[in-house]
Design brief:
The protein is an alpha/beta fold and 439 residues long. It has 17 helices and 13 strands. The protein has 3 domains: 47 residues, Transferase, Pyrimidine Nucleoside Phosphorylase, Chain A, domain 3, CATH 1.20.970; 254 residues, Nucleoside phosphorylase/phosphoribosyltransferase catalytic domain (Pyrimidine Nucleoside Phosphorylase, Chain A, domain 2, 3-Layer(aba) Sandwich); 95 residues, Aldehyde Oxidoreductase, domain 3 (Alpha-Beta Complex), CATH 3.90.1170. The two termini are 38 Å apart. Pfam families: Glycos_trans_3N, Glycos_transf_3, PYNP_C.
Protein backbone atom coordinates (compact mmCIF):
# COMPACT_ATOMS: atom_id res chain seq x y z
CA UNK A 1 0.00 0.00 0.00
CA UNK A 2 1.38 3.42 -0.99
CA UNK A 3 0.24 6.85 0.24
CA UNK A 4 0.32 8.24 -3.31
CA UNK A 5 -2.27 5.68 -4.46
CA UNK A 6 -4.60 6.57 -1.57
CA UNK A 7 -4.22 10.29 -2.35
CA UNK A 8 -4.86 9.59 -6.05
CA UNK A 9 -8.10 7.75 -5.28
CA UNK A 10 -9.45 10.53 -3.08
CA UNK A 11 -8.29 13.21 -5.54
CA UNK A 12 -10.38 11.50 -8.21
CA UNK A 13 -13.45 11.39 -5.96
CA UNK A 14 -13.20 7.69 -5.16
CA UNK A 15 -13.79 6.04 -1.79
CA UNK A 16 -10.93 5.21 0.56
CA UNK A 17 -11.26 1.84 2.31
CA UNK A 18 -11.04 1.35 6.06
CA UNK A 19 -7.54 -0.13 5.59
CA UNK A 20 -6.38 2.84 3.52
CA UNK A 21 -7.63 5.36 6.09
CA UNK A 22 -5.93 3.40 8.90
CA UNK A 23 -2.72 3.26 6.84
CA UNK A 24 -2.68 7.05 6.32
CA UNK A 25 -3.54 8.06 9.89
CA UNK A 26 -1.36 5.51 11.69
CA UNK A 27 1.49 6.08 9.26
CA UNK A 28 1.40 9.82 9.92
CA UNK A 29 1.19 9.43 13.70
CA UNK A 30 4.15 7.05 13.85
CA UNK A 31 6.24 9.14 11.46
CA UNK A 32 6.27 6.79 8.48
CA UNK A 33 4.21 9.04 6.20
CA UNK A 34 5.40 12.66 5.74
CA UNK A 35 3.15 15.64 6.41
CA UNK A 36 3.19 16.78 2.76
CA UNK A 37 1.46 13.58 1.66
CA UNK A 38 -1.13 13.75 4.45
CA UNK A 39 -1.67 17.44 3.56
CA UNK A 40 -2.39 16.45 -0.05
CA UNK A 41 -4.83 13.78 1.14
CA UNK A 42 -6.61 16.25 3.47
CA UNK A 43 -6.97 18.73 0.61
CA UNK A 44 -8.43 15.97 -1.58
CA UNK A 45 -10.93 15.23 1.21
CA UNK A 46 -11.68 18.95 1.48
CA UNK A 47 -12.71 19.14 -2.17
CA UNK A 48 -14.34 15.70 -2.57
CA UNK A 49 -15.71 14.99 0.91
CA UNK A 50 -16.14 11.57 2.47
CA UNK A 51 -18.96 9.03 2.59
CA UNK A 52 -20.73 8.19 5.86
CA UNK A 53 -18.61 5.02 6.16
CA UNK A 54 -15.34 6.86 5.45
CA UNK A 55 -16.15 9.42 8.15
CA UNK A 56 -16.84 6.62 10.60
CA UNK A 57 -13.59 4.79 9.81
CA UNK A 58 -11.61 8.05 10.13
CA UNK A 59 -13.28 8.76 13.49
CA UNK A 60 -12.58 5.30 14.88
CA UNK A 61 -8.92 5.14 13.84
CA UNK A 62 -8.36 8.55 15.48
CA UNK A 63 -10.27 7.43 18.58
CA UNK A 64 -8.23 4.23 18.83
CA UNK A 65 -4.91 6.11 18.58
CA UNK A 66 -5.05 6.88 22.31
CA UNK A 67 -6.73 6.04 25.61
CA UNK A 68 -10.32 4.81 25.84
CA UNK A 69 -11.90 6.03 29.08
CA UNK A 70 -13.95 3.32 30.78
CA UNK A 71 -16.72 4.89 32.89
CA UNK A 72 -18.13 1.59 34.18
CA UNK A 73 -16.82 2.51 37.65
CA UNK A 74 -19.53 5.18 37.80
CA UNK A 75 -22.91 3.77 38.81
CA UNK A 76 -26.00 4.64 36.82
CA UNK A 77 -26.61 6.18 33.42
CA UNK A 78 -23.92 8.50 32.00
CA UNK A 79 -24.90 11.02 29.32
CA UNK A 80 -22.24 13.34 27.88
CA UNK A 81 -22.88 16.86 26.58
CA UNK A 82 -20.72 18.66 24.04
CA UNK A 83 -20.92 22.13 22.55
CA UNK A 84 -19.09 23.13 19.38
CA UNK A 85 -18.24 26.40 21.12
CA UNK A 86 -19.58 29.91 21.29
CA UNK A 87 -19.49 33.22 23.13
CA UNK A 88 -20.97 33.16 26.64
CA UNK A 89 -21.51 29.41 26.43
CA UNK A 90 -21.30 28.33 30.06
CA UNK A 91 -23.97 25.61 29.78
CA UNK A 92 -21.93 22.80 31.42
CA UNK A 93 -21.72 24.83 34.64
CA UNK A 94 -25.51 24.97 34.97
CA UNK A 95 -26.75 21.92 33.03
CA UNK A 96 -24.47 19.51 34.89
CA UNK A 97 -25.81 20.19 38.40
CA UNK A 98 -29.31 20.53 36.97
CA UNK A 99 -29.48 17.04 35.44
CA UNK A 100 -27.50 15.54 38.33
CA UNK A 101 -30.27 16.82 40.63
CA UNK A 102 -32.65 14.60 38.63
CA UNK A 103 -30.53 11.46 39.06
CA UNK A 104 -28.22 11.52 36.03
CA UNK A 105 -24.45 11.07 36.41
CA UNK A 106 -22.44 13.78 34.65
CA UNK A 107 -18.73 13.02 34.28
CA UNK A 108 -17.01 15.36 31.86
CA UNK A 109 -13.53 15.88 30.51
CA UNK A 110 -13.26 19.47 29.32
CA UNK A 111 -10.68 21.77 27.78
CA UNK A 112 -9.34 25.29 28.04
CA UNK A 113 -10.30 28.21 25.83
CA UNK A 114 -8.37 29.48 22.82
CA UNK A 115 -9.41 32.38 20.62
CA UNK A 116 -12.87 33.94 20.89
CA UNK A 117 -14.59 31.02 22.72
CA UNK A 118 -14.07 30.28 26.39
CA UNK A 119 -13.11 26.96 27.99
CA UNK A 120 -15.04 25.20 30.76
CA UNK A 121 -11.86 24.44 32.72
CA UNK A 122 -10.83 28.12 32.75
CA UNK A 123 -14.26 29.14 34.00
CA UNK A 124 -14.21 26.58 36.82
CA UNK A 125 -10.71 27.63 37.89
CA UNK A 126 -12.07 31.15 38.45
CA UNK A 127 -13.66 29.64 41.59
CA UNK A 128 -11.07 29.94 44.39
CA UNK A 129 -9.56 26.52 45.20
CA UNK A 130 -11.36 24.58 42.44
CA UNK A 131 -9.20 21.67 41.23
CA UNK A 132 -9.55 20.36 37.68
CA UNK A 133 -6.47 18.12 37.76
CA UNK A 134 -7.78 15.16 39.77
CA UNK A 135 -6.92 11.46 39.87
CA UNK A 136 -9.02 8.75 38.23
CA UNK A 137 -10.09 7.46 41.66
CA UNK A 138 -11.18 10.96 42.76
CA UNK A 139 -13.02 11.44 39.47
CA UNK A 140 -15.05 8.25 39.99
CA UNK A 141 -15.64 8.95 43.69
CA UNK A 142 -17.01 12.46 43.06
CA UNK A 143 -19.19 11.24 40.18
CA UNK A 144 -20.72 8.50 42.34
CA UNK A 145 -21.20 10.61 45.48
CA UNK A 146 -22.16 14.00 44.02
CA UNK A 147 -23.40 13.06 40.53
CA UNK A 148 -21.32 15.75 38.85
CA UNK A 149 -17.58 15.98 38.09
CA UNK A 150 -15.48 17.87 35.54
CA UNK A 151 -11.76 17.35 34.99
CA UNK A 152 -9.18 18.60 32.52
CA UNK A 153 -8.79 16.48 29.39
CA UNK A 154 -5.85 14.08 29.47
CA UNK A 155 -3.14 14.43 26.84
CA UNK A 156 -3.68 10.98 25.39
CA UNK A 157 -7.28 11.08 24.19
CA UNK A 158 -7.28 10.78 20.38
CA UNK A 159 -3.68 12.00 19.88
CA UNK A 160 -4.04 11.36 16.14
CA UNK A 161 -6.73 14.05 16.04
CA UNK A 162 -4.41 16.53 17.74
CA UNK A 163 -1.69 15.90 15.16
CA UNK A 164 -4.09 15.95 12.19
CA UNK A 165 -5.78 19.13 13.45
CA UNK A 166 -2.42 20.94 13.67
CA UNK A 167 -1.84 20.02 10.02
CA UNK A 168 -5.36 21.11 8.99
CA UNK A 169 -4.80 24.42 10.74
CA UNK A 170 -1.82 25.31 8.50
CA UNK A 171 -3.17 23.84 5.25
CA UNK A 172 -6.60 25.61 5.15
CA UNK A 173 -8.50 22.34 5.57
CA UNK A 174 -10.15 22.99 8.95
CA UNK A 175 -13.68 23.79 7.77
CA UNK A 176 -14.69 20.53 6.10
CA UNK A 177 -17.69 18.63 7.49
CA UNK A 178 -16.15 15.13 7.48
CA UNK A 179 -12.92 16.30 9.12
CA UNK A 180 -14.75 18.38 11.75
CA UNK A 181 -17.13 15.47 12.52
CA UNK A 182 -14.30 12.96 12.92
CA UNK A 183 -12.30 15.38 15.09
CA UNK A 184 -15.16 15.99 17.55
CA UNK A 185 -16.55 12.45 17.61
CA UNK A 186 -13.16 10.72 17.97
CA UNK A 187 -12.85 12.44 21.37
CA UNK A 188 -16.50 11.93 22.35
CA UNK A 189 -16.43 8.20 21.51
CA UNK A 190 -13.17 7.75 23.44
CA UNK A 191 -15.18 8.31 26.63
CA UNK A 192 -17.55 5.48 27.54
CA UNK A 193 -20.78 7.40 28.13
CA UNK A 194 -24.16 5.81 27.42
CA UNK A 195 -25.24 8.66 25.17
CA UNK A 196 -24.32 12.11 23.88
CA UNK A 197 -26.22 15.37 23.52
CA UNK A 198 -24.56 17.73 21.03
CA UNK A 199 -25.08 21.49 20.98
CA UNK A 200 -24.05 22.53 17.47
CA UNK A 201 -23.75 26.31 17.33
CA UNK A 202 -24.43 28.35 14.21
CA UNK A 203 -24.18 32.07 13.49
CA UNK A 204 -21.72 34.93 13.71
CA UNK A 205 -20.11 33.68 16.95
CA UNK A 206 -19.91 30.02 15.95
CA UNK A 207 -17.43 27.99 13.97
CA UNK A 208 -20.24 27.12 11.53
CA UNK A 209 -21.53 30.50 10.35
CA UNK A 210 -24.14 29.05 7.98
CA UNK A 211 -27.20 27.24 9.39
CA UNK A 212 -27.29 24.65 6.58
CA UNK A 213 -23.64 23.77 7.21
CA UNK A 214 -24.37 23.44 10.94
CA UNK A 215 -27.30 21.09 10.24
CA UNK A 216 -25.12 19.03 7.91
CA UNK A 217 -22.41 18.83 10.60
CA UNK A 218 -24.98 17.77 13.22
CA UNK A 219 -26.37 15.04 10.95
CA UNK A 220 -22.86 13.82 10.16
CA UNK A 221 -21.98 13.45 13.85
CA UNK A 222 -25.29 11.73 14.56
CA UNK A 223 -24.55 9.20 11.78
CA UNK A 224 -21.11 8.46 13.25
CA UNK A 225 -22.63 7.87 16.71
CA UNK A 226 -25.30 5.60 15.21
CA UNK A 227 -22.64 3.47 13.50
CA UNK A 228 -20.98 3.18 16.92
CA UNK A 229 -24.32 2.11 18.49
CA UNK A 230 -24.28 5.19 20.69
CA UNK A 231 -27.48 7.07 21.60
CA UNK A 232 -27.32 10.68 20.45
CA UNK A 233 -29.34 13.88 20.05
CA UNK A 234 -28.02 17.00 18.31
CA UNK A 235 -29.51 20.46 18.75
CA UNK A 236 -28.58 23.19 16.26
CA UNK A 237 -28.64 26.43 18.27
CA UNK A 238 -28.27 30.17 17.69
CA UNK A 239 -24.93 31.93 18.13
CA UNK A 240 -25.88 35.17 16.32
CA UNK A 241 -25.64 36.85 19.71
CA UNK A 242 -23.85 35.92 22.95
CA UNK A 243 -25.59 33.23 25.02
CA UNK A 244 -26.90 34.82 28.20
CA UNK A 245 -25.62 38.23 29.28
CA UNK A 246 -22.11 37.57 30.59
CA UNK A 247 -18.87 36.85 28.72
CA UNK A 248 -15.69 36.14 30.72
CA UNK A 249 -14.70 33.53 33.27
CA UNK A 250 -15.90 34.79 36.68
CA UNK A 251 -18.85 36.59 35.10
CA UNK A 252 -19.99 33.35 33.45
CA UNK A 253 -19.68 31.37 36.70
CA UNK A 254 -21.78 34.10 38.36
CA UNK A 255 -24.44 33.75 35.65
CA UNK A 256 -24.56 29.95 35.97
CA UNK A 257 -25.10 30.28 39.73
CA UNK A 258 -27.82 32.91 39.27
CA UNK A 259 -29.51 30.67 36.69
CA UNK A 260 -29.76 27.81 39.19
CA UNK A 261 -31.33 30.31 41.60
CA UNK A 262 -33.99 31.01 38.99
CA UNK A 263 -32.58 34.45 38.16
CA UNK A 264 -30.73 33.67 34.93
CA UNK A 265 -31.20 35.26 31.50
CA UNK A 266 -34.18 33.89 29.59
CA UNK A 267 -32.24 32.50 26.61
CA UNK A 268 -29.57 30.80 28.72
CA UNK A 269 -32.14 29.30 31.10
CA UNK A 270 -34.21 28.01 28.17
CA UNK A 271 -31.20 26.34 26.53
CA UNK A 272 -30.10 24.74 29.81
CA UNK A 273 -33.59 23.27 30.32
CA UNK A 274 -33.66 22.07 26.70
CA UNK A 275 -30.23 20.42 26.83
CA UNK A 276 -30.97 18.91 30.23
CA UNK A 277 -34.35 17.53 29.15
CA UNK A 278 -32.77 15.87 26.13
CA UNK A 279 -30.02 14.37 28.30
CA UNK A 280 -32.61 12.92 30.72
CA UNK A 281 -34.82 11.70 27.86
CA UNK A 282 -31.83 9.98 26.22
CA UNK A 283 -30.99 8.30 29.53
CA UNK A 284 -34.46 6.74 29.78
CA UNK A 285 -34.94 8.14 33.30
CA UNK A 286 -37.71 10.49 32.17
CA UNK A 287 -39.68 11.38 29.08
CA UNK A 288 -38.69 14.68 27.48
CA UNK A 289 -41.80 16.53 28.79
CA UNK A 290 -41.48 15.12 32.32
CA UNK A 291 -37.79 15.98 32.31
CA UNK A 292 -38.51 19.64 31.52
CA UNK A 293 -41.02 19.74 34.38
CA UNK A 294 -38.58 18.13 36.88
CA UNK A 295 -35.71 20.44 35.88
CA UNK A 296 -37.82 23.56 36.34
CA UNK A 297 -38.97 22.26 39.74
CA UNK A 298 -35.37 21.54 40.80
CA UNK A 299 -34.41 25.13 40.07
CA UNK A 300 -37.37 26.42 42.08
CA UNK A 301 -36.84 24.08 45.07
CA UNK A 302 -33.07 24.60 45.23
CA UNK A 303 -32.04 20.98 44.52
CA UNK A 304 -29.94 21.92 41.48
CA UNK A 305 -28.15 24.66 43.43
CA UNK A 306 -27.39 22.20 46.25
CA UNK A 307 -25.76 19.81 43.76
CA UNK A 308 -23.65 22.70 42.47
CA UNK A 309 -22.59 23.54 46.04
CA UNK A 310 -21.58 19.91 46.75
CA UNK A 311 -19.81 19.60 43.41
CA UNK A 312 -17.72 22.75 43.95
CA UNK A 313 -16.81 21.60 47.48
CA UNK A 314 -15.89 18.09 46.29
CA UNK A 315 -13.36 19.49 43.83
CA UNK A 316 -11.72 21.76 46.41
CA UNK A 317 -13.55 24.97 45.55
CA UNK A 318 -15.01 27.48 47.97
CA UNK A 319 -18.64 26.36 48.07
CA UNK A 320 -19.68 29.69 49.64
CA UNK A 321 -19.43 31.09 46.11
CA UNK A 322 -22.95 29.73 45.62
CA UNK A 323 -24.28 32.11 48.30
CA UNK A 324 -22.06 35.15 47.66
CA UNK A 325 -20.65 34.85 44.12
CA UNK A 326 -19.93 38.56 43.68
CA UNK A 327 -17.87 38.64 46.89
CA UNK A 328 -15.90 35.43 46.35
CA UNK A 329 -15.32 35.39 42.58
CA UNK A 330 -12.55 37.64 41.27
CA UNK A 331 -14.59 40.26 39.40
CA UNK A 332 -13.02 43.59 38.44
CA UNK A 333 -14.45 46.73 40.05
CA UNK A 334 -13.18 48.89 37.16
CA UNK A 335 -15.95 49.26 34.57
CA UNK A 336 -15.97 50.98 31.18
CA UNK A 337 -19.28 51.57 29.41
CA UNK A 338 -19.98 50.96 25.72
CA UNK A 339 -22.83 53.22 24.55
CA UNK A 340 -25.09 53.48 21.52
CA UNK A 341 -24.04 56.21 19.07
CA UNK A 342 -27.48 56.53 17.43
CA UNK A 343 -31.18 55.76 17.85
CA UNK A 344 -32.69 52.58 16.41
CA UNK A 345 -32.89 48.83 16.81
CA UNK A 346 -29.98 46.44 17.36
CA UNK A 347 -30.31 44.52 14.09
CA UNK A 348 -26.99 42.62 13.98
CA UNK A 349 -24.27 41.54 16.40
CA UNK A 350 -21.00 40.11 15.11
CA UNK A 351 -20.72 37.77 18.07
CA UNK A 352 -17.21 36.62 17.22
CA UNK A 353 -16.03 40.22 17.64
CA UNK A 354 -17.69 40.32 21.07
CA UNK A 355 -15.73 37.18 22.00
CA UNK A 356 -12.49 38.70 20.71
CA UNK A 357 -13.23 41.91 22.66
CA UNK A 358 -13.46 39.83 25.84
CA UNK A 359 -10.22 38.09 24.90
CA UNK A 360 -8.27 41.36 24.42
CA UNK A 361 -9.50 42.51 27.83
CA UNK A 362 -7.62 39.46 29.17
CA UNK A 363 -10.42 36.87 29.53
CA UNK A 364 -9.07 34.61 26.77
CA UNK A 365 -5.92 33.45 25.02
CA UNK A 366 -4.45 34.34 21.62
CA UNK A 367 -2.01 31.45 22.04
CA UNK A 368 -1.94 28.46 24.40
CA UNK A 369 0.81 29.90 26.63
CA UNK A 370 -1.09 33.10 27.47
CA UNK A 371 -2.32 33.62 31.03
CA UNK A 372 -5.91 34.68 31.49
CA UNK A 373 -7.44 37.18 33.88
CA UNK A 374 -10.50 35.69 35.59
CA UNK A 375 -11.75 39.12 36.71
CA UNK A 376 -12.38 40.71 33.31
CA UNK A 377 -15.12 40.32 30.71
CA UNK A 378 -18.23 41.90 29.25
CA UNK A 379 -21.80 42.20 30.50
CA UNK A 380 -24.25 42.59 27.61
CA UNK A 381 -27.19 44.86 28.47
CA UNK A 382 -28.80 45.17 25.02
CA UNK A 383 -29.25 42.28 22.57
CA UNK A 384 -30.83 41.67 19.17
CA UNK A 385 -34.14 43.39 18.48
CA UNK A 386 -33.86 45.85 21.37
CA UNK A 387 -34.68 49.50 20.69
CA UNK A 388 -31.96 51.88 21.88
CA UNK A 389 -31.50 55.62 22.08
CA UNK A 390 -28.23 57.45 21.54
CA UNK A 391 -26.22 57.27 24.76
CA UNK A 392 -27.86 54.09 26.10
CA UNK A 393 -25.41 51.63 27.67
CA UNK A 394 -25.17 48.56 25.41
CA UNK A 395 -22.49 46.74 27.40
CA UNK A 396 -20.27 47.08 30.46
CA UNK A 397 -16.61 46.13 30.17
CA UNK A 398 -14.95 44.78 33.31
CA UNK A 399 -11.30 45.73 32.81
CA UNK A 400 -7.88 45.57 34.44
CA UNK A 401 -4.73 47.66 34.00
CA UNK A 402 -3.53 45.08 31.43
CA UNK A 403 -6.71 45.21 29.33
CA UNK A 404 -6.59 46.69 25.84
CA UNK A 405 -9.73 48.77 26.39
CA UNK A 406 -9.48 50.79 23.16
CA UNK A 407 -9.25 47.67 21.00
CA UNK A 408 -12.16 46.07 22.86
CA UNK A 409 -14.35 49.16 22.38
CA UNK A 410 -13.42 49.34 18.68
CA UNK A 411 -14.39 45.68 18.29
CA UNK A 412 -17.76 46.23 19.98
CA UNK A 413 -18.38 49.30 17.82
CA UNK A 414 -17.75 47.17 14.72
CA UNK A 415 -19.82 44.27 16.12
CA UNK A 416 -23.07 46.16 16.75
CA UNK A 417 -25.26 47.38 13.90
CA UNK A 418 -28.12 49.75 14.74
CA UNK A 419 -30.80 50.35 12.09
CA UNK A 420 -34.26 51.86 11.84
CA UNK A 421 -35.87 48.40 11.59
CA UNK A 422 -35.56 45.43 13.97
CA UNK A 423 -34.04 42.13 12.72
CA UNK A 424 -36.17 39.26 11.45
CA UNK A 425 -37.46 37.05 14.26
CA UNK A 426 -35.66 34.04 12.75
CA UNK A 427 -32.37 35.71 13.73
CA UNK A 428 -33.43 35.53 17.38
CA UNK A 429 -34.73 31.96 17.38
CA UNK A 430 -32.80 29.94 19.99
CA UNK A 431 -33.08 26.38 18.61
CA UNK A 432 -33.21 25.79 14.87
CA UNK A 433 -33.31 22.01 14.61
CA UNK A 434 -33.23 18.79 16.61
CA UNK A 435 -31.73 15.64 15.11
CA UNK A 436 -32.26 12.35 16.95
CA UNK A 437 -30.34 9.15 16.34
CA UNK A 438 -28.93 6.05 17.95
CA UNK A 439 -32.09 4.94 19.76
Amino acid sequence: MRPVDIIYKKRNGEINTKEEIEFMINGYVNGQIPDYQVSAWLMAIYFNGMTKEERYHLTMVMRDSGDIIDLSGIKGIKIDKHSTGGVGDKTTLAVGPLVASAGLKVSKLSGRGLGHTGGTIDKLEAIPGFQTAISKDEFFKIANEVGMVVAGQTGNIAPADKKIYALRDVTATVDEISLISASIMSKKLAVGSDGIVLDVKTGSGAFMKNINDAIELAKSMVEIAELNNRKIVALVTNMDQPLGDNVGNSLEVLEAIETLKGKGPEDFTELCIELGANMLDLSGLYTYENAKKILKENIENGKALEVMRNWIKSQGGNEKVVDNPEEILPISKEIVEFRAEEDGFISHIDTEKVGIASMVLGAGRKKKEDEIDYSVGIKILKKLGVKVSKGDIIAKLYVSDKSNVKEALDLLKAAYKITSNPPKEEKMKLIYEKIVGGK
